[in-house]
Write a structure and sequence with these properties.
The protein is built from twelve helices and no strands. With about 400 residues, it is mostly helical. The radius of gyration is 20 Å and the shape is globular.
């Protein structure tokens, strides 16, 4: 059931603004608490920090398939409000008692509920904007998330050195509750269709749809290599700045800021793209641009080249994210969208795992410049996959 058809243009814009604002506020809180938790557990030991990363990953692994089934079974607006509220209460519970083991469990549960929020939001956006204007919705949402994350990095760093982890957790918990409150004021909703055909193995429906659709399968394969490349590059970037360029942590933070500013540009400009063919070409161009952006600091390890490359890389990466969401929405019937978006999230989770595992080995074996060159090669593979699929499908008259 699409609620957008009953909303006026003003009401759609208001609902989208509320959704994006809540996402941005929550992204800020998430960055603040993550920096606070890693700083706090760093004093406990390296295994405590490692456990935190494992817990976050485990929450995403478990949450992705669960989120898809929930999004395609229950009304999305109440589901979102519930998941956001649970996130907030879980984070606030750490204020009562704090220990590494309890933190790991809580972070895993927050990650699972976060998957529900992300998947359900992606499925709900076309019901707010209307199917034909979903690009604007995903662009606004991506922009708000980027701005919130950038603010959270700065604010979180200040809190970690002054107020401590308790304030960070309080802010994150309250921002999740604020996001839930904003969501409650939105009139649009997505009510999944529950026909008999939809009762067949729901857990595999999303993956089956992806495997049957050549468009989706090749796009998500390309996105897998994009995420791997980005993860490897970020791991190598730290050592490139400190060990090769002999710069300080301040400069690393500045490079991350360049990436974030580029991401802001990419998400805002993506909404200008109209038509499936133009968006497909833009995706290929974006991945090709990411390849060059990651290769630049490896070939010329200087701060200026790194800053320009990271700005361009952030813009290209953000644009491909928005275009992938629009692509999934356009090639998926509404009754499957929750599970297909969850399948896309699973691709991202697996790619992050592969990239993280490979990144450390590449830095140790090839050095920072070699790891960034390998990341650029992975992005080049993604560009070849996307370009080849586009050309073949166009010849068949399918794009």
């Amino acid at each position: 059931m699409t609620a957008a058809g009953t909303l006026t243009a003003t009401a759609r814009t208001r609902a989208l603004l509320l959704l994006a604002s809540g996402a941005g506020i929550s992204a800020l809180g998430s960055q603040v608490s993550w920096i606070g938790l890693t700083s706090q557990l760093q004093g406990v030991g390296v295994y405590a920090v490692t456990g935190l990363f494992i817990a976050a990953t485990a929450g995403n692994v478990v949450g992705a398939p669960v989120a898809g089934m929930l999004a395609d079974r229950y009304r999305n607006k109440p589901l979102l409000i519930t998941a956001m509220t649970v996130q907030g209460l879980l984070l606030l519970s750490l204020l009562v008692t704090f220990s590494p083991a309890l933190t790991w469990v809580t972070v895993a549960l927050v990650g699972t509920s976060g998957c529900v929020v992300g998947t359900t939001t992606a499925a709900l956006v076309p019901h707010i904007t209307g199917e034909e204007d979903s690009m604007r919705g995903y662009s606004w949402h991506g922009t708000a998330m980027t701005v919130g994350s950038l603010g959270g990095v700065v604010f979180g760093g200040v809190l970690a050195t002054t107020a401590g982890v308790q304030w960070a957790l309080l802010i994150d918990g309250l921002t999740s509750l604020v996001q839930a409150a904003l969501m409650a004021t939105i009139r649009a909703d997505r009510v999944p269709r529950r026909d008999r055909e939809a009762k067949t193995d729901e857990r595999r429906a999303g993956l089956s749809h992806v495997l049957r659709d050549v468009h989706l399968g090749t796009r998500l394969l390309a996105q897998f290599f994009v995420v791997c490349a980005t993860t490897v590059a970020f791991l190598g970037e730290v050592f490139l700045i400190t060990d090769v360029m002999h710069a300080t942590a301040f400069w690393y933070g500045l490079m991350v800021g360049c990436w974030g500013c580029g991401a802001l540009l990419g998400s805002t400009q993506a909404r200008r793209l109209r038509g499936d063919r133009l968006r497909a070409v833009a995706y290929v161009a974006g991945v090709a641009g990411l390849t060059v952006a990651l290769l630049a600091p490896a070939a010329w390890p200087f701060l200026l080249a790194n800053a320009l490359g990271w700005f361009a890389g952030g813009a290209c990466r953000s644009m491909t994210n928005v275009l992938t969401n629009v692509f999934v929405q356009a090639h998926t019937p509404d009754e499957f969208r929750g599970r297909v978006f969850a399948a896309a999230d699973s691709v991202t989770v697996v790619a992050n795992l592969v990239g993280t595992a490979a990144g450390g080995a590449l830095v140790a074996g090839l050095g920072p410049r070699g790891s960034l060159a390998t990341a650029a090669a992975a992005a080049a593979v993604a560009a070849v996959v996307a370009a080849t699929a586009h050309v073949l499908l166009r010849r068949r008259g399918e794009s």
